[in-house]
Write a structure and sequence with these properties.
The complex is a heterodimer of chains A (about 350) and B (about 325). Chain A is α+β, with helices and mostly antiparallel strands and about 350 residues long. Chain A has 2 domains: about 5-240, Rossmann fold, CATH 3.40.50; about 245-335, Beta Barrel (OB fold (Dihydrolipoamide Acetyltransferase, E2P)), CATH 2.40.50. Chain A has helices at about 45-55, 95-100, 115-125, 140-155, 170-190, 200-205, 225-230, 235-240, and strands at about 5-15, 20-30, 35-40, 60-65, 70, 80-85, 160-165, 195, 210-215, 215-220, 245-250, 260-265, 270-275, 280-290, 295-300, 300-305, 320-325, 330, 335. In chain A, the strands form 4 sheets. Chain A has a 6-stranded mixed beta sheet, sandwiched between helices. A 5-stranded antiparallel beta sheet of chain A has the order 13-17-14-15-16, with no helix packed on it. A 4-stranded antiparallel beta sheet of chain A has the order 2-1-4-5, covered by helices on one side. In chain A, strand 15 (about 295-300) and strand 16 (about 300-305) form a beta hairpin. The longest helix of chain A is centred in the middle third of the chain and has 18 residues, at about 170-190. Chain A is globular. By secondary structure, chain B is mainly α. Chain B is built from 13 helices and 2 strands; from the N terminus they run αββαααααααααααα. Chain B has helices at about 1-15, 30-60, 80-85, 90-120, 125-140, 140-150, 160-165, 185-210, 210-220, 225-255, 255-260, 275-285, 290-315, and strands spanning about 25, 30. Chain B has a two-stranded antiparallel sheet. In chain B, helix 4 (about 90-120) crosses helix 8 (about 185-210), helix 5 (about 125-140) crosses helix 8 (about 185-210) and helix 12 packs antiparallel against helix 13. Chain B is globular and about 75 Å long. The model of chain B is unreliable at about 1-15 (pLDDT under 50). The chains are: A alpha+beta (about 350), B mainly alpha (about 325). The interface between A and B is medium-sized, with 29 and 21 residues.
Chain lengths: ~350, ~325
């Protein structure tokens, strides 16, 4: 395990339709034993960043250091990284055991066979796939395949584990289980992980720090709590929270700070009372999710979504008054303003 | 809760009220409609495939001759089969066929896979090269047979000129089609020239079906290019390669047109593949019963070998 430093890295892809700047001037340091999640929508440059660290892409500018050593020009094999791909990148004609032993059998590693067996079996137990070791990779379910893919990375002890949305192809239940398991394994092994996801729950629950990426730039990096409570801009604020933050025009409410154009209001920032008031809205829909209910409001044509108080017993068509409680303010450029 | 149950209550009657269009169309049931569509095909298949096959099997037990159709035929039982399977000339023809099939399949598979492997590298202009390589395959075997006879001409042939030039010999010092040792190779070369592109095309499909991320994973896992080839490329492309071998094998087992044009089975009977022997027996000696028996023997051989092979192919695929 080691520290990984990404310094002002840029990468553009040229295609027939033009140049796409995938990553621009991105700097990030992942500390020893840290779990950093890169969060952003599709096409934000998360995966490219990961591939740059792995050496599967070469940066146009900037450098990458692993454990103090500049690896920018090195091939993936020389970097001492492990990569878990979004698709199950298993060798279909090999057994689970052979798949997991594949990396250890590289001629440059010279790991004795007994040690390979011991290591693979240990990791298989950790991932609860020890009974499947002799199965062909293609005879597994999706969840098992992804465990094997993760296991292939775990049998090695690389400087850093790079994971590209490893849970996105699993169903919701399995994803929840694997989230817990991955976090447990990371804590047990003290592994350094750079984890790419577009799922805020994964980032929030597993990461020690979250980096929010948009259009190839790192918008903000911090603990999940910091990112949630103190987003630097409206974009970062919109990435976290369920239901998503409501970005409302500032002139709807009175008493906003000077220069504020947008108010960011999550459920905890909104007070709702039955009947009319200074700011009035109409209930359009109530979505019951079982343990909680989403309340959809119409605020003068502006949709607002919040969690509903089960006691309130509101119905579609009811009029409510809206109030604010320490919301977030953003200026015209979307930057955060002090309240 | 109200909205949820309300919507589900609406959904059910709507589904039930939908007319069952799939079951009836102007009084015809699904089954009748299906028969209506496939009957012409089945009739055609019976008329031009199944009936001739059964008729051939019948003829193979008789002394029928197509050029003396009015002479009463005699039932011979398995006589033809016995005489064919003990005839050294037939076995010679089978050996020529085996030589032709085995060498063409080996050469076409190795070259075809090699070309596919190179073309798959997606270098500049690889699309144009693919088209150029595919050209021979698009020609008619009759055309190919005719112009290779010219290329193989000892005096004016381009092939002889080039080989003579490279090995420092007179172009007319050897005859590809007239020489007993060279002519079996002459037909192998032409078939390989014509059909390697086809094998390449199938192998290329196989190589393209291997996702890039498997190679990337292997690269991160420190697998050398050679190891990647042996543990990823070859095993994952193997079902495709085997399919190409199957197609070429069956096709060349019954090779007739090109060999007939190039050598006509000669010199002597050195390039007389089974189908040429068959044609001679059937349409030169008019031994219809005899040639029917031979045709059935060939058919059973190809069918049997292909079946064994397909089983092996399925095993590879299901790995």
């Amino acid at each position: 395990m080691a520290e990984v430093e990404i310094r002002a890295v840029s990468k553009a892809f040229k295609s027939r339709t033009g140049t796409t700047q995938a990553v621009s001037g991105l700097s990030l340091t992942i500390g020893h034993g840290e779990f950093v999640a890169l969060l952003g929508p599709t096409g934000a440059g998360k995966t490219t960043t990961l591939r740059l660290v792995a050496g599967l892409e070469a940066p146009d500018n900037g450098s990458i250091r692993i454990d103090g050593r500049d690896v920018t020009g090195e091939a993936p094999a020389d970097r001492d990284v492990a990569f878990v791909f979004q698709q199950y990148s298993l060798y279909p004609h090999l057994t689970v055991f052979e798949n997991m032993a594949f990396a250890l059998r590289a001629p440059t590693r010279r790991v004795p066979e007994a040690e390979i067996r011991a290591k693979v079996e240990q990791v298989a137990r950790l991932l609860h796939i020890e009974a499947k070791l002799n199965n062909k990779a293609t005879q597994l379910s999706g969840g098992q395949m992804q465990r094997v893919a993760i296991g292939r990375a775990l049998v090695r002890s690389p400087a850093i584990y790079l994971m590209d949305e490893p849970l996105s192809s699993l169903d919701a239940k399995l994803r929840g289980e694997m989230r817990l398991e991955l976090k447990r394994i990371q804590t047990d092994l003290g592994a350094t992980i750079l984890y790419v996801t577009h799922d805020q729950t994964e980032a929030m629950t597993m990461a020690s720090r979250i980096g929010v990426i948009e259009a190839g730039r790192l918008m903000q990096i911090g603990t999940p709590r910091e990112i949630y409570e103190n987003p630097v801009n409206a974009y970062v604020a919109a990435r976290l929270g369920q239901p998503a933050i409501n970005l409302l025009p500032a002139d709807i409410f009175a008493g906003v700070p000077h220069g504020a154009r947008t108010i960011g209001a999550r459920t905890e920032h909104l007070t709702i009372a039955r009947g009319g008031g200074a700011v009035c809205a109409t209930v359009t829909r109530i979505e019951h999710l079982g343990d909680q209910s989403y309340l959809h409001l119409d605020l003068g044509g502006q949709p607002v979504v919040t969690l509903s108080d089960p006691e309130a017993e509101l119905r579609a068509g009811d009029a409510v008054s809206l109030g604010l409680r320490n919301p977030l303010f953003f200026d015209a450029a979307g930057r955060r303003l002090a309240a | 809760m109200n909205e949820l149950s309300a919507s589900s209550r609406i959904a059910y009657p709507a589904a039930a009220a939908q007319p069952r269009v799939t079951h009836r169309l102007r009084g015809l049931s699904d089954r009748a409609l299906a028969w209506l569509f496939i009957t012409p095909t089945i009739l055609l298949l019976l008329a031009i495939n199944i009936f001739p096959l059964i008729w051939t099997i019948y003829l193979s037990f008789t002394n029928y001759r197509a050029n003396r159709a009015n002479v009463p035929t005699r039932w011979l039982g398995l006589d033809w089969y016995q005489s064919i399977l003990t005839d050294p000339d037939i076995w010679a023809a089978m050996q020529v066929t085996a030589h032709f099939v085995i060498w063409t399949v080996i050469i076409e598979t190795v070259l075809g896979f090699g070309l596919a492997f190179l073309i798959d590298k997606k270098f500049r202009g690889h699309g144009a090269w693919t088209t150029i390589i595919l050209l021979p395959m698009m020609l008619s075997p009759a055309v190919v047979g005719n112009f290779w006879t010219f290329l193989y001409q000892p005096q004016i042939g381009l092939f002889n000129y080039v080989i003579g030039f490279v090995f420092g010999r007179a172009p007319s010092s050897f005859q590809m089609l007239g020489d007993v040792t060279l002519s079996p190779w002459a037909i192998v070369i032409v078939d390989a020239w014509m059909w390697t592109p086809y094998v390449m095309l199938i192998c290329l499909a196989g190589l393209r079906s291997i996702p890039d991320y498997i190679y990337e994973a292997a690269e991160v896992d420190r697998a050398s290019k050679l190891r990647q080839f042996w543990s990823i490329t070859l095993p994952m492309a193997l079902p495709f390669i085997m399919l190409a071998v199957l197609f070429r094998g069956i096709e060349n087992f019954k090779m007739f047109d090109m060999v007939n044009l190039l050598t006509g089975g000669g010199p002597g009977s050195t390039t007389e593949v089974a189908s040429i022997t068959l044609k001679r027996a059937a349409f030169e000696s008019w031994r219809t019963g005899y040639s029917s028996a031979f045709a059935i023997i060939l058919f059973v051989t190809v069918f049997g070998l292909a079946n064994i092979y397909v089983k092996a192919l399925n095993r590879v695929k299901s790995r």
